[in-house]
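testing teh design pipeline on a random one, pls ignore if ur not involved
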């Protein structure tokens, strides 16, 4: 099912339909402030299983991220973070950043890699996905949508092309306009000093 949603004029009824799909173990493709991504509800083990099969990767090996609507979920899904890290996140978010933090016991065990108990947290600067999370009432479990070639990774940017290729594989596709080809900046905040894992769209000036 294809939903064409204008990020500047979001119709609540469309968001309700998408949320209903997610609550019924659905998997969606949706726009972010970086690349298009694929996701399901955090509270849907069946959705997570579908997502893993679609990515052809075992769940524990997927680079899964929690998509939040704001920073209020931090206390539930991460262990207490230093004030210095919180200040960085407050400065950076919403925005094209992924913060790696120590996961709390509330995060399903299947997300946690065998030795490193961490989780990626995102608050995208995209009204569509933030509205979905708000109405869903819990974070999305998300990973980027791309084709992996022998040497390069190609991200999907054109919604009609995404629909053509994936309409039979997922439960809903949200056309929120053209996507970006650049990924988020990933910052690991699990140690004493923040570490840049990947430099992407997000400026490193937030660390100053």
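output:
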């Amino acid at each position: 099912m294809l939903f064409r949603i204008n990020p500047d004029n979001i119709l609540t009824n469309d968001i309700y339909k998408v949320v209903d799909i997610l609550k019924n173990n659905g998997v969606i493709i949706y726009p972010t402030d970086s690349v298009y991504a694929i996701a399901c509800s955090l509270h849907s083990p069946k959705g997570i299983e579908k997502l893993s099969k679609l990515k052809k990767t075992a769940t524990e090996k997927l680079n899964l991220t929690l998509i939040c609507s704001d920073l209020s979920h931090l206390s539930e899904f991460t262990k207490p973070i230093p004030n210095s890290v919180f200040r960085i996140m407050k400065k950076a978010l919403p925005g094209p950043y992924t913060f790696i933090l120590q996961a709390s016991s509330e995060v399903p065990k299947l997300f946690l890699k065998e030795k490193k108990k961490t989780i990626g947290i995102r608050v995208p600067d995209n009204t569509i996905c933030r509205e979905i999370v708000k109405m869903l009432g819990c974070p999305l479990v998300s990973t980027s949508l791309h084709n992996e070639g022998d040497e390069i990774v190609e991200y999907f940017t054109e919604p009609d092309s995404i629909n053509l290729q994936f309409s039979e594989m997922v439960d809903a596709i949200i056309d929120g306009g053209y996507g970006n080809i650049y990924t988020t900046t990933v910052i690991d905040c699990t140690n004493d000093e923040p570490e840049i894992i990947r430099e992407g769209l997000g400026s490193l000036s937030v660390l100053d």
